[in-house]
Amino acid sequence: PLRYISKLKELVKHEAEKNKSQWKTMGPAKVAVPSPNDFLQKRSKEPKLAPKKKEQDGKRLLPLLPPRTYHPVIHIKKNFINKNAVAVIKGEPTKPRHFCVDTRQGDKYLLEPSGLFPKYIKKKNYGVIPKYVTRRNEEMKREEEEYQASVLEQLKKKALKALSEEERTDILKALKKKWEEINHAYQGLPVLTDTRYKRMHKEELELKLTQLEHDIAAIEKHKSVYIADV
Questions:
Q1: Rounded CA gap, 164 and 224, in Å?
Q2: 160: which strand partners?
Q3: What is the pLDDT of residue 60?
Q4: What pTM, to 2 d.p., does this model score?
Q5: What ranges in 36-164 are assigned the alpha helix state H?
Q6: How far apart are CA 31 and CA 37, in angstroms?
Q7: DSSP letter, residue 25
Q8: Residue with the larger pLDDT of the pair 225 and 30
Q9: Average pLDDT over residues 141-146
Q10: With contact defined as beta carbons under 8 Å apart, do 98 and 112 qualify?
């Protein structure tokens, strides 16, 4: 029997030749060889400035002439010699600078910036209270007055009584006198506290002394003392 031959043989052969690319697996493709004149030159990639504008018809443009009413400024020459002489005559003489010599060879240095010259006490504002300190003291005084006024207002609302200076002084004297009496009794305690009563008595006196010291310190610290009506 005859050999089977497909009807699509020619079509397959044509498709295979159509999709086949030359030099695909056999070396580089055939491309155009670069020209020797297209080599990379120096500063060829830097931005180029725009060309300068040429003068019209090769002639330089002259500035416009000034008008007829223009009058140039005439500079008056000064006599610097006379001017300097007058300045020297009328000027104040320079004060001598103070130096301090600290070696036998005559090495010297300025006395004023060294800290040995009393320049601060010779200032015009030496000993004068600065303005910010005065302003701060006034603000503190005003705040204290406002606080005392608010406290008095609250005391009036709560029916509190403010102690006078005489009452405060009398109470302070009485507390100090009481402290001296208890301290005298405390100093008279025996050195050896071998019984329970002695220890309790000593602890009681120490507690009273501590409380009195606290009360005396509180009254001395606060000038205004208020008590409630019980």
A1: 8
A2: 228
A3: 61
A4: 0.33
A5: 80-90, 131-158
A6: 18
A7: S
A8: 225
A9: 93
A10: yes
Sign of the dihedral through C-alpha 111, 116, 122, 123: positive
* Cα–Cα dist 112/119, whole Å: 7
Residues counted in the chain: 230
C-alpha to C-alpha distance for 55 and 89, rounded to whole angstroms: 60
Q: Given this model, what pLDDT does residue 145 score?
A: 93
Q: Where are the domains of the chain?
A: 96-159, 161-227
User: Which of 169, 177, 183 has its CA nearest to residue 223?
Assistant: 169
User: Which residues are registered as beta bridge partners of 196?
Assistant: none
Distance CA(130)–CA(112), nearest Å, equals 24
Spatial distance between the Cα atoms of 202 and 72, rounded to a whole number of angstroms: 110
* Structural contact between residues 153 and 215, judged by C-beta atoms closer than 8 angstroms: no
Residues 6+ apart with CB under 8 A from 205: 182, 185, 186, 189
| 39-66: pLDDT as tens digits | 888 888 888 888 776 655 556 666 778 8
Which structure tokens are listed for 198? 């002695």
| Type of residue found at 88 | V
Which of the four pLDDT bands, split at 50, 70 and 90, describes residue 138?
very high
Q: Which amino acid is it at 186?
A: Y
Q: What pLDDT, on a 0 to 100 scale, did the predictor assign at position 227?
A: 77
**Cα separation, 9 vs 15, whole angstroms:** 10
The first and second tokens of residue 10, run together, are 């020619």
